[in-house]
């Protein structure tokens, strides 16, 4: 069983560790580091090895996940680079840092992965996009299994990582804003807030499952509930007249432009 170290283990790192434990990873093969060691106490109680020293945490680890802010990353990479072995895989969770920039402090052939999970990792329903450099197929599979422990994982070209951030990470906020608006509409129709939320969240989950399990285009499922002169098509047309799809697409593109400027 491979040993996995999470350096800078915050909320996302903790979610990944809990997913790994639930998938059968032995706690003694998981390491976590953080400056505030007390914050890792819940993981320690689960049998995970915890450290306040990054160099201790990565010693002997097969895969090292860096859950660090982008501005902290160069300092930590410079710290751990002299102690890295050529087969240790580095996985960065920092948005906006390219594989090229990550590799500046490292040996040229160091296996590197950029990973972009989302906050649904907390409930093991993340969609994680992964891009790699210098990784063998076996190493890619090993990293993929980690992120499959908290949802789904797909490999993409690195040039699409910023776009993946918008759809997969920012996208959680877009969907939640849609859900909030649906709930508000339900309240105006007469439901209390909790009942409206229950109806809307289950409906949203069900709609997603129709596409995930059926593999159909969204319009095919929409056609099933839009009868001639029915209330559904009236509502959809009113939303489109008000710019529903256009506003969403513009928002996605605006977010992408913002991330490109960083």
UniProtKB/TrEMBL annotation:
It comes from Saprospira grandis (strain Lewin). One of its GO terms (cellular component) is cytoplasm. One of its GO terms (biological process) is L-proline biosynthetic process. Residues 3-95 form the Pyrroline-5-carboxylate reductase catalytic N-terminal domain. It catalyses: L-proline + NADP(+) = (S)-1-pyrroline-5-carboxylate + NADPH + 2 H(+); L-proline + NAD(+) = (S)-1-pyrroline-5-carboxylate + NADH + 2 H(+). This is Pyrroline-5-carboxylate reductase. PANTHER family: PYRROLINE-5-CARBOXYLATE REDUCTASE, PYRROLINE-5-CARBOXYLATE REDUCTASE 3. Coiled coil: none annotated. It is found in: Cytoplasm.
